[in-house]
Amino acid sequence: MQNKKVIGIDLDDVLLDFNTAFIKYHNIVYKSDLNLRSKYNHAFDKFLGCDKEEAERRILEFYETDDHDRVLPIQGAPEAIQKLSQNNSLIIITARPERLREWVSLWLGKHYGDIFSGLYFTNQFHGTGIVKTKGETCKELGVDIFIDDHIKHIEEVALTGIKVLLFDMPWNQGELGFGITRVYSWEDILKELS
Predict the structure, then answer these.
(1) For residues 149 and 13, is the Cβ–Cβ distance under 8 A?
(2) N or C: which end of the chain has fewer CB within 10 A?
(3) In the structure, what pLDDT confidence band is assigned to residue 6 with cuts at 50, 70 and 90?
(4) Torsional class of 122: left (φ above 0), alpha (ψ -120 to 50), beta (otherwise)
(5) Residue 59 pLDDT greater than 80, yes or no
(6) pLDDT greater than 90 at residue 17
(7) Superfamily of domain 5-17+72-192
(8) How many CB atoms are closer than 10 A to CB 136?
(9) Contact in structure between 79 and 111 (CB atoms under 8 Å)
(10) 52-61, 84-93, 122-131: which range is least confident on average?
């Protein structure tokens, strides 16, 4: 019998379609003309055309809206997660702040049920308390495979020797380091892990 692998999965833009919803909200509230294709990196201040503090304020403001409550899963994710959960232990590792635990738990329950065996916050985005890298967190939790859309997080985890899959997005284009595999959809992820 095959041992279950521990698969760590990022939340935003891997399971939850955050940027699509945030951009739509931002365009309405701030009269901007942003689109997903123009988001070329994870630096929200550069993308939004404001300083870092203002960018964080706008994102934190979005967290409190009904638009945030209506964010949908990434296409194909619920079905793929269901398949992966049959032979693996799935955990969420997010850079979101710990204070959003209740919201994240409710959202995951609504869209994915109780498939995930753990939910971990690294507090790297506007968090309070202990801030950890995703590399440290994956190592501590015994993660075998990690999936994320943020190149910095993927590189940190890859340095620990853990297999990493980079979920393709406009902001993570470019040459990939050793041990990093780019995937273009949840179907690709299933093929890569079969």
Answers:
(1) yes
(2) N
(3) very high
(4) alpha
(5) yes
(6) yes
(7) HAD superfamily/HAD-like (3.40.50.1000)
(8) 14
(9) no
(10) 122-131
Alpha-carbon distance values, 113 to 39, 49, 50, 169, 185 (Å): 31, 37, 37, 26, 21
Which conformational region is residue 126 in: left (phi greater than 0), alpha (psi within -120 to 50 degrees), or beta? left
DSSP 11: S
**3-class state of residue 99 by DSSP:** helix
**Structure tokens that stand for 148 in this block:** 């994320």
> How far, in Å, CA of 72 to CA of 61, rounded?
18
Residue type, 80: A
Q: Domain limits of the chain?
A: 5-17+72-192, 18-69
Residue for token pair 């393709």: 168
pTM score > 0.85 for this model? Answer: yes
Q: Six-digit token pair at 146?
A: 């990690």
Tokens matching residue 98: 């710990």
Give pLDDT tens digits for 117-131. 999 999 887 666 788
Please give the structure tokens belonging to residue 52: 């870092």
